[in-house]
Each structure stands twice: as structure tokens, then as C-alpha cells.
Design goal:
The protein is α+β, with helices and mostly antiparallel strands. The chain contains 4 helices and 5 strands. It starts with a helix and ends with a helix.
């Protein structure tokens, strides 16, 4: 609570409720309209990984055709990112009965991401220069190894 209040510029919090834990984060709902996510592990990479996550969210917000959580505050040293809570239901909680209905929306979202030029990427986001054919070669090699075991 103290770290969240500090990251929000001293704003006092009324409610602070755990939403869930994953393998690498714990998420809390703050005052019904914010989400505070803390990394579950503290290591030398915490600050860099948190800064990277913030830059990814901000980039996605600029190019996305679907809602992206707005970053409202952070404490990178402690692995904290505070975002505005998105309205609606998560597909994880309420899967669609018709996944084909999502195809156009997903295609539009991916087209926006693919339109980002390398020179427009924030500093923390490195370009992966590995061509897809290299991934395919790795997958073939890994498949052969797994098939023998």
C-alpha cells in the first residue's frame, strides 16, 4: 500500500484487494479503478524488466486498436506498475463461444503492431533481428530431439 501511494504521488488509498498471483506477478485492485502489479521476485533485472514492461504498454497504447491499460505510476526498483483498470470481462474469465468473431479485431490489432517502425521503438525495446526461418529451423531441430526421447 505504501509503495502504491508513493508511486501515485502520495494519493491515499481507500481499498486494496488482491486479484491474483501468477508465476511472476501479484495483482491488486486499488480503489476499484486501478490495478497495481508487483513482480514476485526481486533480482538485479527487476528495474530493467519493469521499465521494459512500461515502455511496451505505452507503445501498445499508441498503436493499438483495442484498449490497453494506461500506466499511471510505477516504482521500477520494486517491480511495481500501476495502470487504470480496463472495463469489461477478460476472455480468460469469460471465453467467447465464437472465437471467429475476434479474427477481424485481432487482425487489425496485429496490423497496427506490425506497422511500428524499428526507429520508433522506445530504447528499452530491442529489435529481434532473428528471421522467422531461423525459428523454423530451431523448431525442426527441437522436434527431432524430442522425437528421439
Amino acid at each position: 500500500r505504501r509503495l502504491v501511494e508513493a508511486a501515485l504521488g502520495g494519493t491515499r488509498i481507500s481499498t486494496f484487494r488482491i486479484l491474483g498471483r501468477g508465476t511472476d506477478h501479484t495483482a491488486y485492485e486499488v480503489d476499484g479503478g486501478l490495478i497495481a502489479r508487483f513482480t514476485s521476485t526481486q533480482d538485479p533485472e527487476t528495474a530493467a524488466a519493469t521499465a521494459w514492461e512500461i515502455e511496451i504498454l505505452q507503445l501498445a497504447d499508441r498503436v493499438s486498436t483495442v484498449p490497453v491499460p494506461e500506466v499511471l505510476g510505477a516504482d521500477t526498483e520494486n517491480g511495481l506498475v500501476i495502470t487504470r483498470k480496463l472495463m469489461g470481462s477478460s476472455l480468460l474469465d469469460a471465453p467467447t463461444n465464437n472465437p471467429h468473431a475476434l479474427i477481424d479485431q485481432l487482425a487489425e490489432f496485429l496490423a497496427g503492431l506490425h506497422a511500428v517502425r524499428d526507429e520508433d521503438l522506445p530504447p528499452a525495446i530491442e529489435v529481434d533481428w532473428c528471421p522467422p526461418t531461423a525459428f523454423l529451423a530451431d523448431a525442426s531441430t527441437n522436434l527431432a530431439v524430442l522425437a528421439r526421447s
